[in-house]
Specification:
The complex is a heterodimer of chains A (409) and B (147). Helix content of chain A is 41%, strand content 16%. Chain A has 409 residues and is α/β, with parallel strands linked by helices. Chain A folds into 2 domains: 140 residues, Aspartate Aminotransferase, domain 1 (Alpha-Beta Complex); 254 residues, Type I PLP-dependent aspartate aminotransferase-like (Major domain) (Aspartate Aminotransferase, domain 2), CATH 3.40.640. In chain A, the strands form 5 sheets. A 7-stranded mixed sheet of chain A has the order 4-10-9-8-7-5-6, with helices on both faces. In chain A, strand 5, helix 6 and strand 6 form a beta-alpha-beta unit. Chain B has a single domain, classed as Sufe protein. Chain: A, CATH 3.90.1010.10. Helix content of chain B is 41%, strand content 18%. Chain B has 5 helices and 3 strands. Chain B has a 3-stranded antiparallel sheet with strand order 1-2-3, with helices on one face. In chain B, strand 2 and strand 3 form a beta hairpin. In chain B, helix 2 packs across helix 3, helix 3 packs parallel to helix 5 and helix 4 runs antiparallel to helix 5. The chains are: A alpha/beta (409), B alpha+beta (147). Chains A and B meet through helix 13 of A and helix 1 and helix 3 of B. The structure holds pyridoxal-5'-phosphate. The site of pyridoxal-5'-phosphate (PLP) has 12 residues of chain A, from helix 5.
């Protein structure tokens, strides 16, 4: 059951008030707030169960190892992975994307091989490939956008023709666009490419089923889905993860080490060199349990209704004074609302909103190529999550009105 | 939290709406330097013409928020016609006002008048905006180094 009042109560940070008025948190596309269940799970584990994992033979260490591996299993179930071994813990989506881009490029790609990205990628799915393009002589091709902020797939077959890798976002962190993942995956596979999906914005907000998606790898971050910062996930098909070399060497990732050589541990340990973020893994496990207890389909439904309410409210109140980017159709977008307000600079809008405790992001959202294409140097971005309600949207709209007082428009 | 009226003073909004010395200069003889604030995407291009040790012409181009734009506009007014040494002193003085630099650069008795720029004093109460206010000034430092 989706009980919004109860959900809001689960987030201590949202109960706070600043100088007498409530905090309106509209920056979840950046990072999410944490429910008590996650905070308590990490606290409880730290107080009662903390010990090294995978190294020591005493019972407490074995129990800590079990808890860490149990978190892996919870996450595997959450995304419907075939096995927990397909779930690699990283620091964040950025590390997951780099792990693949760097490892795969060095192992498999040669001068002239083609990697396909899209114009709506986050820097985390652009820069690692640019680094590899410089190092390996890889060619990068781009899937462009339509005027209403969707991927323009009209020339897709030409663009992916002969590509070795296609790596694209499931949902834009600027436009909110939800891409037709399965279609792009299938067509890329037909072209012979290995497919990575940056699922950083989709996993927190909708049902994720890696088997139904069909991709070879996906990347996401714990902190955007109610989990702590410091932990992320790379999911991969077993045969792909077997072929992918590790990025870092050290403890935990080896099978054997001699003076002149080493051999790798099996997946996923191969990618988890050094002491991993143990407490954070426990926290992310608790986060996916919490999300599952509410239901990802229910969360998506709530966000669709709230996004519709926000689109309607903002356009009704401000008409042509507000320009909201991205698709209009609620089925094709998530709760990320990037907008321009009158001729005010986003930084100034954010300052005025902050005065009313409304937290939004202003800037280029780590997607500068996209910003140049939509001809916005910066936007204001209000992003919604399960704990936001129509009152938050109303306060946002009221706070925007107060721009009049200051800029006298 | 300090009031927004401390930040958005009338003179700041005036420089934002009607930026002074906007445009380009021919390079060479002028030099141009780009500056940007990676946090919010503000961008500025500064054109400086130095003749006989004096900043004889200065223009700015680019886009950004009210604070970065007005600071750039006021800066061009304050810097035009100054010697390089005076310009350096102004830069240090302004950065000191933004509380990001100690005062020890200034020769005693030589604190230059900031004029309109004093209006930016309120920015210090909004630490995230200090970067906006000093963008043009950091860019000017770079330009003068290469002049
Ligand atoms: C689409 C997308 N990909 C990747 C990332 C990078 O996530 P992180 O900073 O957690 O590594 C983000 C975060 O903003 C994102 O929105």
């Amino acid at each position: 059951m989706f009980d919004l009042a109860r959900i809001r109560n689960d987030f201590p940070h949202l109960q706070r008030s600043l100088e007498g008025s409530p905090v309106v948190y509209l920056d979840s596309a950046n990072t999410s707030q944490k429910p008590t269940a996650v905070i308590e799970a990490m606290k409880h584990f730290t107080e009662h169960s903390y010990a090294p994992i995978n190294r020591s033979a005493y019972r407490m260490a074995a129990a800590a190892t079990d808890a860490y591996e149990n978190a892996r299993t919870l996450i595997a179930n959450f995304i419907n992975a075939g096995s927990p071994d397909e779930v690699v813990f990283t620091k964040n989506a950025t590390e997951s994307l780099n792990l693949f881009a760097q490892g795969w490029s060095r192992q498999r790609l040669q001068q002239g091989d083609v990697v396909v990205l899209t114009h709506m990628e986050h820097h985390a799915n652009i820069v690692p490939w640019q680094m590899m393009a410089a190092e390996r002589g890889i060619e990068i091709r781009w899937i462009p956008l339509t005027d209403d902020g969707q991927l323009d797939l009209s020339d897709l077959d030409n663009i992916i023709d002969g590509a070795s890798v296609v790596s694209f976002t499931a949902m834009s962190n600027v436009l909110g666009t939800m891409n037709p993942v399965r279609e792009i995956v299938d067509r890329s596979h037909a072209a012979g490419a290995t497919v990575m999906v940056d699922a950083c914005q989709s996993v927190p907000h909708a049902v994720t089923d890696v088997q139904a998606m069909g991709a070879d790898l996906i990347a996401f971050s714990g902190h955007k889905m109610l989990g702590p910062s410091g932990i992320g996930v790379l999911w991969g098909r077993p045969d792909i993860l077997d072929q992918l070399p590790p990025l870092m060497g050290g403890g935990n990732m080896i099978d054997d080490v001699r003076l002149d050589t080493f051999s790798c541990a099996p997946v996923p340990a191969k990618f988890e060199a050094g002491t991993p973020p143990i407490i954070e893994a426990i926290g992310l496990g608790a986060a996916v349990e919490y999300l599952s207890s509410i239901g990802m389909a229910e969360i998506r439904q709530h966000e669709m209704e709230l996004t519709q309410y926000a689109l309607d409210t903002l356009t009704e109140r401000f008409g042509s004074d507000i320009v909201i980017h991205g698709p209009r159709n609620i089925e094709e977008r998530g709760g990320v609302l990037s907008f321009a307000f009158r001729d005010l600079h986003p930084h100034d809008v954010s300052q005025i909103l902050d005065e009313k405790n409304v937290c939004v992001r202003a800037g280029h959202h780590c997607a500068k190529p996209l910003m140049r294409i939509i001809e916005a140097h910066a936007t204001v971005r209000a992003s919604l999550y399960l704990y936001n309600d129509t009152n938050d949207v109303d306060i946002l709209a009221d706070a925007l009105t107060s721009a009049d007082d200051i800029f006298g428009l | 939290m300090p009031g927004l009226e401390d930040l958005y003073r009338e003179i700041i909004l005036d420089h934002y709406r009607n930026p002074r010395n906007r445009g380009e200069l021919e390079t060479p003889p002028a030099i141009s330097v780009d500056g940007h604030n990676p946090l919010c995407g503000d961008e500025i291009t500064l054109y400086v013409l130095v003749e006989d040790g004096v900043v004889s012409e200065i223009k700015t181009n680019g886009q950004g928020c009210s604070i970065s734009q007005s600071s750039a506009s006021m800066m061009t007014q304050a810097i035009r016609g100054r010697t390089l040494a005076e310009a350096e002193a102004l830069i240090h003085h302004f950065k000191h006002m933004m509380s990001i630099e100690d005062h020890h650069h200034d020769e005693p008795g030589e604190a230059p008048a900031l004029g309109d720029l004093e209006a930016l004093q309120g920015v210090v109460k909004f630490p995230v905006r200090i970067k906006c206010a000093v963008l043009a000034w950091n860019t000017l430092s770079q330009a003068l180094e290469s002049a």
